Structure formats: C-alpha cells, structure tokens
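Exercise: predict the structure of this protein bound to fructose -6-phosphate.
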Amino acid sequence: MCGIIGITSNKPVSSAIINSLKKLEYRGYDSAGIATLSNGFINEIKSEGRVDNLEKNLINKKIEGNIGIGHVRWATHGIPSTINAHPHSSETVSVVHNGIIENSTKLKEYLISRGHIFKSQTDTEVIVHLITEYLKENDLKKSILKMLGKLQGSFALGIIFKDQPDLIIGARRGSPLAVGYGPNENYLGSDSYALKSMTNKISYLNDGEFCIIKKNQVEFFDEKGKKINKKVLELSSDEKNYDKGDYKHFMAKEIEEQPLTIKNCVKEYIDNINNDINIYNFPWKKEEINSLTLIGCGTAYNSCLTAKYWFDEMTNLDVNVDVASEFRYRKNKFKKDNLYIFVSQSGETADTYAALDLCNKNKMKTASIVNVIESSIARDSNFVLPIHCGPEIGVASTKAFLGQMLVLYILVLKLSFLREELKKDNYIQKIKSLKQLPDLVEKTIMSQNKIQLVANTFAEAKGSMFLGRGLSYPIALEGALKLKELSYTHAEGYPAGEMKHGPLALIENGMPVVVLAPRDSYYSKITSNMQEVIARGAKVLLITNKNKDDVVSENIWETIEVEDTNVDLLPFLLTIPLQKLAYYSALKKGYDIDKPRNLAKSVTVE
Ligand code: F6R
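Solution:
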C-alpha cells in the first residue's frame, strides 16, 4: 500500500529517495512520484506504474535539491494515473499522504469557494490547499495544527515548503510513520524498511503527533503542538533478506526459507534440554484468562481459525475468532477475563490495529503475534509474541502464515499445560514432535515435483474449490485465497460437509477440486465428500499424508502426499503444496507473482 519517504540533507537527495521507494515496492502500488526543492522552487515528477518508470523519467528531467519527499501510491480516491500520483503540490507546499481523508468532499467545497483550483481526483489534494490557505495568515506551525484539526480519517503525511530549504513536516493519525537519524541528514519514512539502508536509528510517531525534521535536528509535538521527547531505537540489520538471491521471485525464496524460519522460531520458544516452552514475562496469571478472541485479516485470520481447532482440542478456554474489519464495528461484549490476540505479519494492518485500539480503549488484555516487532500493533499491545520469520517481501503471505500458526500452536501447548489440561507426558511428546517440524517441512518442500503440472490445470480452469474438514478446513481457505490472489481465477474454500448445502451445484465436468484429507479423525467423512464431487465430474487433487495404508485412489485425478507427523502439525505440511500450486499457476499465466494486481503487502487503509 502507499509508502512515504522524505530526506533533508547537505547533499542531493533524489537518487536516495528513489532507492528508498524501491524498498517500499513490496507494499504494492500503482504509481510513484518525487518532489524536491531547489533555488526556491518545488520540482515535481510523477509516473504511472513502477518506480523504474519514475527513475527513467528522472534521467530525462534531472531534479536537483538537498531536500525532498517521495511516494508510492495505491489508489483509493481517483484512478491510478500520473495526475493522481503523489506528491501533490501548490506553488507553496508539496504533500505526500498515506491513508484516507474521509471529509475531503466537504473540505474541497470550502476550498473551491475560497478560489482554490484542484488538479487531481484525490482526497490528498485538500491537504495541499488547506495549508496553502492557512499559511496566508498564520506561521508554519499554526498552519499545520489548523490543517490537522480539519482532517477526518487516517493519515501519515510528509510535507515540504517552498520557503523552507531544510524542513520536512511529518504527521500521523492512524497510518504508521517513522523518523530516521543520519549524519548531517534526517529522514521520514512510512516504515523502517524504507529507512534501513540509510540508518538503523529510528523513532516512531504515535497517533496525533507531528514532527519537524531538519538535517541536524528533529522536534516532536503532540496534537496540541506541545513539544515532546522521543526514544531513539536501534534496529537490527537484516539487509540480506531484501535480496532475492538466485530465486526468480521472493515468493519462491520465502516458500523455501520455511524450514529455516520454523527452526528459528522453535529455537526462540522451545527449551531444548527440558522440552519446555519459554514464554517470558507473560503478564497475566492463568486464573485471569477464561476466554480468548483471536483477530486478524486474510491469511492471518486463517491462522487464527486453525488455532481455534487446537485450542478447542487441548483447552477448556472459550475461543472466538473474528475478522478485524467486522470486530472493530461489532457491538462487542468486552470481558475482563478475555485475552484479545491480534495476529498480523506486518503489524500495520489498519483494521487489525483499529480492533486492537478499541480493546485498549476498553482496557482489555491485549497480545499480538507479529513478524515486524517495531510495528504499531506490536508497540501498542500489552504483550508481543514475535514469529521470527525475517522480512516477508512477496505480497502473498507464505512463511509468515506458517510462523503465525507455529506461535499460536506454541501458545496453545503452553496455556493448556499451565491450566493442567494437557498432561506432562503429552506436553513433552508434542514438543518433541514440534522439534521435528523443520525437517518435515523441508522434506515436503523437496518432494513436490508433481505440483507444477497439476498447477497448469488450475491456472486454466474457470474456477476451483478447496475442501477440508477440521484442522484442514482453514488450510483449504488459505489454499483458495492464495490461488485467487496470485492467478486471478475464482477459487473457493469450503468445509467439505457444507457442499450439499449449496456449493455442490457449482461442480461440473472437469472442475479441479483440492481435497485435503489427512489421516485424522475426519478421514472417512471427507473421503465420502470427495466421492460425491467425483461423481459429479470433479477432477480431484487429493492431498494427504504418507501412511502405511494406501489411499483408495478410485477415480482420483492426482494424489500428493506430504510427510507424516502427529495430526496437530499436519496443517503446516498441507499448506506447502497449496503455496506451490498458487505459485506455479501464476507462473504459468505470466503474472506478477510478488506483486499481484490490486493488492498490497501492508494494508494501511481500512
Ligand atoms: C494473503 C495476505 C493477506 C494478509 C492480510 C493481513 O496472502 O497476505 O491476506 O494476510 O492482508 O496482513 P497482516 O498479516 O500484515 O496483518
């Protein structure tokens, strides 16, 4: 989704801005732009499409200046086009914006009545004109405060001024924003990834705050304009994770990294010698928690749904799972003995953050499971459980999904053991199996030769279905989500027992259907559901685990076997062929695998 970068320095900034915009490409966007100041003028260049296009444009029209802002835009108000790309500028100011200004129509009417002329269809342009208007009668700080007071909605802003050769304003409400510190230069960025190649010293703005960045000084203010102090954090350096290496796509790299990311995560939480789970500084006593609500979006939601099956199986806790965009507007019954757990790879998803914020405002117990530990969701939760995956760049989540499930599973085991619902022998046995998981994931990844051929059929089909029961049902949802987001074909995930209640009508001759049928307690049920779709002409791809009993393969189109392990852990292994199915379907169609159309890595608007 949209990304912001700002630099004020004692040397030219345009190429550093372009490099940082490239770091933000993983977020998904449709246009890009840059504005710098030189000789008292604002120079603005914008392009539709990739940052490469913008870079080519810059070769023709060199733009100079030691201060500038850049942006990648994911369209909300107004089509993706050069005119709607950011920055938006008047003669006086230039603005980049992430988020949505909800009252832009009203503000625009007012500004037009004051003689302002609008060039774009964006909501952002009202910010440009508001500042321009207020600067006529107020100093800079007052104008900014007045402008911020008028905006409704969510935003992160970067602003430069024609008459200020060393000053960038950053402001935040709802969308994340970071400040970076360098030698004789300072930076503004919508996340720390954008700044990491320039500095590892970062501060984050909280909601309502704004900052004034100069090359040798940064000042922070609260929403009333009162000066505040900020901590400077040091980030760890993991630059190598931003490189594809020998892989054609980040997604391929991230799928293959999974044995390692799981191993790292297991190492963080498992006490190898005592076969115990280490979760340090958990802030609540076991008696204080009687129920849980697991909240996320998309893939993160699917990981929550998987965890519900584990919680139900191994604990007496009442567990609800909710989509963040529903939870945040539902009339919730907040309960003191409920723990609200927010799952998010990026830790910046707007709906998930809003759901967390709502719980915090109601003084609930909040915990988060995130990949980016510096993120807003991590910072604002009472307790954080990181998934230790390293940066995930491919828009379609792969290693983070396994990481989210893994941390949720570890939490289930620990809580269940502490609550004396899981006996010690069983607990130790499950931990021992968990330690085998990285190897099993590796073997499963290596043995998926058939999948590329099978994927061609899915890529060409009009639509497909993914069926599962029990723990495999959320994995079916995840498989369908991955296929639709990457290959742009219709795919539906269903609990197999629901087929007769409607979806069976969709089955027609030759329709590819994935049936997830591991050898668990649902095996005989789901194989019956499978025969029902086969009888109606479906081409079934059966995915199961290796077992001493052969599969009765009557009329099954193709069978893929994953490694065998205890049934709790099968969701991890069943996911792998589905990730590859989606990857190869998109490859066959020649689509942009790491940046699927219309999607963004970090969904910072609701
Ligand atoms: C799908 C996918 C998305 C994200 C969702 C939540 O492959 O990646 O569905 O899972 O946008 O993102 P996070 O986990 O960053 O909150």
